[in-house]
Design a protein that fits this description.
With 215 residues, this protein is of the alpha/beta class. It has eleven helices and six strands. It is 52% helix and 11% strand. Strand 4 (136-140), helix 9 and strand 5 form a beta-alpha-beta unit.
């Protein structure tokens, strides 16, 4: 069989459009309806991961997308737990609204404090975000310790994040850390279970930014 016959000839700018057409078609074929507010976030996560399980496992707090978009419009910053997620966030789109994206993982002071305390740099990075004198959207795609640290800061009354995207991937403490965030009153988008990743965290950020570009 000549597999070349199955290859679609598309221009680069057409590939993403075609991908979303395929996603929409497969969702329809499986009878999966996504709430309108959540649709583009969920579809972009599927586009990034090629995994339709996200239609079942993504958890959105009440009015999550509307709240996140409002924060971005008003200049909120985004803090990631990996440089990979930072690289994936469309910083030009974010800057249109006065926001910046940050990752403190490579900061020498973060490394020093983490070593002294015997904790992870991701956990200390969450504290560094406290120094940003503006609302912060956290996009956590790798480190459950980052989510646990945010939860502890909220519990102690140290600080309350404006919004949490909690999609770390892995096996150790990942599911429990996500459930901690789901149980708070902080607006959030969290993926239950083991799946996630820096690419998924960035995809959620970009879905929000691109939606604002269409508004």
């Amino acid at each position: 069989m000549n597999v070349l016959h199955n290859i679609e000839r598309l221009l680069p700018e057409e590939i993403e459009k075609r991908s979303f057409e395929i996603i929409s078609k497969e969702l329809e074929e499986h009878g999966i309806e996504i709430p309108k507010e959540q649709e583009m976030v969920t579809k972009r996560v599927i586009h990034t991961s090629a995994d339709f399980d996200y239609t079942k496992t993504l958890v959105f707090s009440k009015n999550a997308v509307q709240i996140a978009k409002g924060l971005i419009i008003n200049g909120a910053d985004i803090v990631t737990d990996t440089n990979m997620a930072l690289a994936g966030v469309n910083k030009k789109a974010l800057a249109r609204f006065g926001g910046e994206a940050h990752c403190f993982m490579a900061d020498a002071e973060v490394a020093r404090i983490a070593k002294k305390r015997g904790t992870t740099r991701a956990a200390v990075s969450m504290e560094m975000a406290f120094m940003l004198d503006k609302p912060v959207i956290f996009a956590i795609g790798n480190a459950p310790t980052a989510l646990i640290q945010l939860y502890e800061m909220m519990r102690e009354g140290t600080w309350k994040p404006a919004f949490i995207i909690g999609v770390p991937v892995g096996f150790v403490n990942v599911e429990a850390a996500k459930e901690l965030i789901i149980g708070t009153d902080v607006p959030h988008i969290v993926n239950r279970g083991r799946k996630g990743g820096s690419n998924v965290a960035a995809a959620i950020c970009n879905a929000l930014l691109y939606e604002l570009g269409r508004d």
